[in-house]
């Protein structure tokens, strides 16, 4: 360990204390500009509902028009979650499967998205400011990542709308619940 001369050590401590004091003395406007870390994972929207369709238990069915996600259960039941879906021009339909899953995923905006919005970063690390939230379920077709996800959000107030660029967004509380139940290879139907 390197020892600093006593006057250098005092200066460092003084600088730190002045810096901390300056932070607390800063105007309220500066403090309000700091993005707050979410303290809640959002509302749990899942409820058990009747299901009479032909799909096997475990299958995920997403309705763009209803902004819902069903996970089929045995015995004519399904779990129902509220989701946000693609806004105008970004809605898609089809049958895919879960290709992989990630806890606290990193996010790399697709090239097409960065062309539309050049201010987007090339990479967002995992954590409370990542738009994929607490969990991501990656949708594949064949052996290829579709670039669409079922994922959480740190902005739970956006759930239930036409908000995304084609992904399916749940509250972090809901996506953490769903994540535990879904396996790689799970069939996902989007209509």
Q: How would you characterize this protein structure?
A:
This protein has 191 residues and is an alpha/beta fold. Helices cover 21% and strands 29% of the residues. It is built from 4 helices and 11 strands, in the order ααββββββαββββαβ. It has helices at residues 6-25, 28-32, 111-116, 172-181; strands spanning 47-50, 60-63, 68-72, 77-82, 85-86, 94-103, 135-141, 144-151, 162-164, 168-169, 187-190. It has a 9-stranded mixed beta sheet, covered by helices on one side. A hairpin with a 2-residue loop joins β7 (135-141) and β8.
Short note summarizing the structure:
21% of the residues lie in helices and 29% in strands.
Question: What key phrases describe this protein's structure?
Answer:
single chain, 191 residues, alpha/beta, nine-stranded mixed β-sheet, two-stranded parallel ribbon, 4 helices, 21% helix, 29% strand, disordered N terminus
Element order, helices and strands?
Answer: HHEEEEEEHEEEEHE
Runs in which pLDDT lies below 50 for 5 or more consecutive residues are 1-34
pLDDT averaged over residues: 83
Radius of gyration: 22 Å
Percentage of residues in DSSP E strands: 25-35%
In one word, what is the shape?
globular
